[in-house]
Design brief:
With about 250 residues, the protein is α+β, with helices and mostly antiparallel strands. Helices cover about 35% and strands about 25% of the residues. Strand 4 (about 50-55), helix 2 and strand 5 (about 80) form a beta-alpha-beta unit. The protein is elongated. The structure holds zinc ion.
């Protein structure tokens, strides 16, 4: 397994997007080529050397994962594969390597993880990161789908996780459980806030739930989109109702 970290560090990307190169020469697979950045393309090309690229896999179409696929595909005459050409359960063979695509929506509707059964290794994209938590934000994010995706990958009992950002995770089961707990704790917090503090708009509830942890307009906006994603799930489940812009607990 080789990794090239893209030069796009930031609060949501950590040190940068991880581009994973795997397989046995002469044919390799690339997962998540990353942002359209010539320096990153050159770094990937150097790591690939004279090897052939059998396939370029993309976990999801966000701008820090997909865009470089086009240039890499052109320079290596390699096909690009992502959702929905790759469907849930599809097998991808590259030389001796066999990977399985798993549709794991939540962070993004088109999100795939790639499972390497021979090594019990899971490439998690942005479903699970090496550090912090994944963004599941309204309107694109889907908390209910996200929780189902976490439960699904837990059943694989992976030995190791290779995320889209930050370092590989050796305690795969622990990390998946941590992510699940975090998401459910946030939901309980939202329900508790509606219970104890009464109804409110998304903006008001954001300040009540996140007020102590989040500072700055941009982060507060992201927090509100996270909160809205939770409220959407609670609405769908009939646990919360919406009158105008005011959310209230259903009793
Ligand atoms: Zn993403």
């Amino acid at each position: 397994m080789r990794r090239v970290v893209a030069p796009n560090p930031g609060p949501y990307t950590g040190p940068g997007t991880n581009t994973w190169i795997l397989g046995d020469e002469p044919v390799l697979a690339v997962i998540d080529p990353g942002p359209d950045d010539d320096a990153h393309l050159a770094a990937i090309e150097r790591k690939l050397g004279a090897a052939q690229v059998g396939v370029i896999l993309v976990t999801h179409s966000h701008p820090d994962h997909l865009p470089l696929a086009e240039k890499l595909s052109a320079s290596r005459q390699a096909r690009v594969a992502h959702w929905p050409e790759l469907a849930d359960g599809d097998l991808v063979r590259v030389g001796q390597l066999e990977l399985q695509a798993l549709h794991t929506p939540g962070h993004a509707a088109d999100h795939l993880c790639f499972w390497l059964p021979s090594d019990r290794v899971l490439f998690t994209g942005d479903l699970i990161l090496g550090r912090g938590s994944s963004m599941v934000t309204y309107p694109e994010g889907d908390v209910a789908a996200y929780l189902r995706s976490l439960e699904r990958v837990a059943l694989l009992e992976p030995r190791m996780l290779f995320p889209g950002h930050w370092d590989p995770v050796a305690d795969a089961a622990g990390k998946i459980a941590e992510y699940r707990t975090h998401r459910l704790a946030r939901e309980r917090q939202v329900v508790h806030e509606l219970e104890a503090g009464g109804p409110g708009t998304a903006a008001v509830l954001t300040r009540r739930v996140y007020g102590r942890e989040v500072e700055g307009e941009e982060l507060l906006r992201a927090a509100e989109m996270t909160l809205r994603a939770h409220l959407k799930k609670l609405l769908d489940e009939g646990r919360v109702r919406l009158a105008g812009e005011v959310y209230a607990l259903e009793r």
